[in-house]
Write a structure and sequence with these properties.
The protein has about 325 residues and is α/β, with parallel strands linked by helices. The protein contains ten helices and 14 strands.
Length: about 325
């Protein structure tokens, strides 16, 4: 089983494992990631193997600074503007892959573009100290609920990796927002930890929406983030035997007979709801209820990311 080591004492061991071509589970501000050297094909293959992830699904490359990012991807004025506004932080920029980039082709799944993000915290320290960009999808079995605690990572992947770095619960709780910058336009590929409205305010223009075709970034598969139980969205009543994922101060009919009730935010705060989402889904999934009924969440701000995760979690598998 994996060792769980506090982030204050884990850096040297994490560097040694990355340099040895092994994946390491680590905290980021969004969710826990399963990180390996993005330039080492064998190390990247171990990420796919540990997660059971399809190899046509690309990985985000995490960088220490803008200079490292610009050695990997080709940045234009819009890309630089967004990086200056939101890095370090939960924004992934999909840009053309630089011809001289040393990223292994497994990372990009054969695409001519690459997703880049500059994280905060332990992940940033590891990249800077180790000197390697890290490919790092969420640290969970492919298609399942993302982990926001070290314990959740260990319970899922503990028999497949050597080290889980414990940085406590992740503060954002959902994955990064992903935008693609191409030909002077910015397209939203995946809502996430930065609301679309914040990005539009920086751009001074609306984001393009709608998928251009195919999988261009992580998190775009129709079924993703899924509990083992069924998930019923926009529920107006709880059926016998169901668990309830609640939101806000008012309950739907039948909440008193739910197997378990967990509230994303009793006061209706979307940031609190995002931080609670995956942890609550995991707990409700463990309740033994065959179906989780989910109350409606507003579509504004971070609600767009929450609803995206819920729709994919409820999709046919």
């Amino acid at each position: 089983m994996a060792d769980i080591v506090n982030e204050e004492t884990a850096l040297e061991r994490a560097i040694a494992l990355v340099h040895a071509g092994q994946p390491v589970a680590l905290p980021t501000e969004t969710v826990y990631g399963l990180a390996a050297d993005a330039t080492n094909g064998e190390a990247v293959a171990l990420i796919f193997e540990a997660k059971g992830r399809p190899r046509f699904n690309p990985l985000i490359v995490h960088v220490a600074d803008r200079a490292m990012a610009e050695r990997i991807g080709r940045f234009d004025a819009l890309s630089r503007k967004l990086a200056a506004a939101f890095w370090p932080g939960p924004l992934t920029l999909v840009v053309p892959l630089a011809p001289e980039a040393e990223i292994h082709p497994l990372v990009t799944a054969g695409l001519t573009s690459v997703g880049l993000r500059m994280p905060r915290g332990f992940a940033a320290r590891l990249i800077a100290a180790g000197g390697r960009p890290l490919a790092a999808p969420s640290a969970n079995s492919s298609g399942r609920i993302s982990a926001t605690t070290a314990a959740a990572v260990e319970a899922d992947l503990g028999d497949r990796i050597a080290l889980v770095v414990d940085g406590g619960p992740t503060p954002v709780g959902v994955e990064s927002t992903i935008v693609k910058v191409e030909d002077g336009r910015v397209r939203l590929l995946r809502p996430g930890g930065i609301a679309a409205e914040e990005i539009e305010a920086v751009l001074g223009a609306p984001l393009l929406r709608g998928e251009a075709g195919g999988i261009e970034a992580p998190g775009m598969m129709r079924s993703h983030y899924a509990p083992r139980a069924g998930l019923r969205l926009a529920a107006d009543a709880v059926a016998p035997g169901e668990a309830l994922l609640a939101f806000g101060p008012k309950r739907i009919a039948g909440a008193d007979r739910a197997v378990m009730v967990l509230n994303l935010s009793p006061v209706g705060d979307l940031r609190e709801a995002a931080a609670s989402l995956f942890l609550h889904l995991q707990a409700l999934d463990r309740s033994g209820a065959p179906v989780i009924a989910a109350e409606s969440v507003p579509q504004t701000g971070l609600g767009e990311a929450i609803n995206d995760r819920l729709r994919r979690a409820a999709a046919p598998r």
